[in-house]
Amino acid sequence: MPARSDASVKRLTLIACIMGSGIALLDGTVVNVALPTIQRHLGGGLAAQQWVLNGYLLTLGSLILIGGSLGDLFGERRIFALGVGGFGVASLGCALAPSIGALIAARAVQGVAGALLVPSALATIVATFPGGEGGSKSERGAAIGSWTAWGGIATVVGPLAGGELLAVASWRWIFLINIPFVIACVTLILTVIPRAERGARGTRTVDFAGALLGALGLAGPVFALIEQPRLGWSSPGVVAPLIAGVLLLACFALHESRARDPMLPLGLFRRRNFSAGNIETFSMYAGLSIMLFFLVLFLQQIGGYTPLQSGLATLPVTLLMFTLSRRFGALADRFGPRLFMGAGPLVAACGLLLFQRVGIHVAYISEVLPALLVFGLGLAMTVAPLTAAVLAGAEESQAGIASGVNNAVARVAGLLGTAAIGAVVAASFSASLDSHLAGVALGAPARVAVHEAKRLPLGRPDVRALPAAQARAVTAAAEDASLRSFHIGLGVAAALVAAGGLVGAAGIRNPKRLVRAETCPGGALVGASPDAAQPTGSRA
Asked: In the chain, where are the structural domains located?
């Protein structure tokens, strides 16, 4: 077989990296629109919907920082192939899951695989397109730009592809569809990306202890928040994981301060812009995750939208971000990021507050679309300047780990945000439902229906077996309670996002080291800035 040219190797390697990252991005956005359908088939209520999303985010967010270290130690080629292949095996496990518990477990394995493939994809691009001697920085920048752009396309296509698949086939196909792409990607990795010489390996150690402490520390509070509506705050099943998680996170911080090669270098947080930027990252991406999660549930379970319609409904946010974020990045390069990091979240918070106008009978054009457009505008104003400020807040030699930390913070924000607001929504729904039905004479079947309804806030109860009058009373109460809880959840999210803007306005200083915000249009979750591309260990 004739040897491939250098240009061919680079082109096919870039295709493999785009395909590998795209699989993970597509899967994350597809699952969101499928949650109501999965719940109808496997049950479990709101808690199960949260776990299907958060099981993935928990392992991904807590382990993604060691993915680069594993690439340094074993070679990014090997780790990339392992991550993509593992993602495919886990996708098959999701598709074949016989129960909601099995699906959640498979989603957690998907998160582990995602933590390997996401950083190793960027590392593979960096190693294939060297920017130093013998390489071209412009060529590397173009490669990273293409990778980022295709990641943005994946986030647009995901909800639409998922909605269309759900319209014509079982929800299991949203996972099975990954398999052919995984096979193609692994084949490219193993046949195109060359092996490196064994002598050229990185010297960093892998912080397995930190990863374990971080994962278990996050799992405790998340478990407590998700299961609290079912068990109650006084239950040992809530109190014990909550306390254990806090203690483990304290141990994690202590370990990271003493580790030789910590996965989270705490010294970075002594830098003002890095700390303030990551606080704002947490608030913005928590708000984004909360909005997308609960809006999709409300539109499908209360508004009667199909999965495809709910995917189309949220599309303006993604389109606005990727259309305008580069433009706002260019403005931030000219005027400094502080103005946009202060104003952007406040605009986004106003968008979230506009959801208070949404009613039971959802009017998309007059109620939902204005809120999404304002929120999307605020997001577009923020993401590129925010990412650039975080990278500029670290030394140039630490830009890679700074980008990784910012990426992890964004994912943990989604994890904790949906878990915490889920507890608020569930408590509000239960209290409001009881208040609406106080004094209403309900038979035993109706009381059972009310009890079951509390497991699925933002949903309509099954009242088919009830007398007509009781069915109308329970349905009306559940609808009103769902609307109230939706408003409260999005209102809390608005306050969180606005607080991030205040932190940005007060805490950010326009940096001396220039990182062009225009090169960070995807923010913390999609692609990367060329400034984050630091050479890692060689391929193996």
From this structure: 1-204, 208-258, 267-426+489-529
In 75-136, alpha helices (H): 76-95, 100-128
Token pair, residue 174, equals 């949203």
Residue 516 has pLDDT above 70, yes or no: no
Return the axis-axis angle of helices 468-507 and 369-392, rounded to nearest 10°: 30
CATH number given to 267-426+489-529: 1.20.1250.20
Please give the Cα distance from 400 to 394 (Å, whole number): 9
Q: Any residues with CB less than 8 A from the CB of 377 and at least 6 apart, and which?
A: 320, 324, 347, 348, 351
Which structure tokens are listed for 149?
A: 């752009």
* Residue 395 backbone phi and psi in degrees, to 5: -60, 155
Q: Is-contact 51 104, C-beta < 8 A? A: yes
Contacting residues for 168 by C-beta, under 8 A, at least 6 apart: none
Residue with tokens 């809880």: 485
C-beta of residue 276 within 8 angstroms of C-beta of residue 406: no
Q: Which two tokens stand for residue 150?
A: 């295709």
Structure tokens that stand for 403 in this block: 């980008």
pLDDT for residue 540: 37
Tell me which amino acid residue 300 is: Q
**What would the two tokens of residue 381 be?**
């104003």
pLDDT tens-digit map of 26-60:
887 889 899 999 999 998 899 999 999 999 999 99
Residue 529: pLDDT over 90: no
Q: CA torsion sign, 169 to 175 to 181 to 183?
A: negative
Structure tokens at 531: 């400034």
Q: Which two tokens stand for residue 422?
A: 């889920």
Q: Check pLDDT > 60 for residue 528.
A: no
- 1-204: what fold? Growth Hormone; Chain: A; (1.20.1250)
Nearest 10 degrees: Cα torsion 243, 258, 281, 398: -170
pTM above the 0.90 mark?
Answer: no
Q: What is the phi/psi pair of residue 412, to 5°? A: -65, -30
